[in-house]
Write a structure and sequence with these properties.
By secondary structure, the protein is an alpha/beta fold. The chain contains 8 helices and 22 strands. The chain is globular, with a radius of gyration of 24 Å.
Amino acid sequence: MRIDLQTYTIVSGMNTKFLLKILIILFISVIIFPSITSASEFRSGDKLVIMKDEVVNDDLYFAGNSITVDGIINGDLIAAGSEIRVTGTINGGIIAAGGSIIVTGKVTNDIKAAGGVVRIGGDVGDNVLVFTGNLVLEKNARIARDLTLGAETATIDGTVNGNINGGASNMEMNGATKGNVTVRIGNNIKLSPGATIGGNLEYTAPRQGEISGIVSGTTTYKEIPVQRENFMSRLPGEIIGYLWLLLIGIISLIFAPELTQKISDNISVKPLKNLLWGLLVLIVTPVVAILLLITIIGIPLGLILLVIYIILFYISRIYVGLWVGQYVLRKLKQETKSRVLAMALGLIIVVIGINLPIIGGFIHFVIVLLGFGAIVLTEYDVYKRLNHSFYNQLAYIFKE
């Protein structure tokens, strides 16, 4: 039984960067680039820089912390990292996932990006597909075909030769599109006086937008009824949710007390690193899983990935709850050896925090990122220790 548990922990705590790279390569090779050859370059590490005078004559795959491309890539760039910056020329397409993705250089093919912030300021020779918290299409940006977006905030200052489709909570357009704009808006849409739409504007929103720009075609507004939730009506559900979280937390403390405590402790030890890795996992995992589900051979792996993702998303709050509870008790000079009591108190604070008006959503987002990041980094540390111990044991056995 001991060997099985160690093997399970090693697999579950696998080097995140390595696993991420393998998943990216797998779905890209099956779906997007079936003609991939052995000439492609695969790189990993903390940092990668393609200098201004450097030329890469292959597709470039990278998984790590940060990547900067100032030179030329005669092929596709596929990257995952905390920060991705492209100021050079990509004679191919870009597929990127990360905390911050900035493309101010020239891209001859399309861009597919998922990140906390996506900023495009150069020429794109094909379509752009973006999922992000904050999208900025700069004034100098030129998209040859369509822009499809899913964003919290979208600012369109550049030019789109095709259509703009998708959705955003808030969208401001100061640039131009030669095609139609069809969007679903969660809060507000603004078309500034200098903005132009060559086709039709169709938007669905809770209220009419500020349409001051030029729309050559028709403007169609569809209203979304504003639903105002009463917290008291949600209270029974929140109580049940709290009890479920506490039950899962207690089970975790019973069967893996030290691991649970270590994950909780890592929240305060590496907060920024937790946030960055949490954001990366939050964004990349569903994108990879969905693309895997499109393929036949990738369906089992895609389903497993989605199940793990949903579970981790849910339980990430219990580790933050334990940390919050222990922190509050220390500050009140009421320290206790009972982790269950600390977790119960912390989860009450967490549940109240994520239900606060206006800032509740942001608090929930930060909690999930901290929990995700702490889980990933702790499991990686466990993997390194067990992996080292496992191979030492093997060496000892074969030596005998």
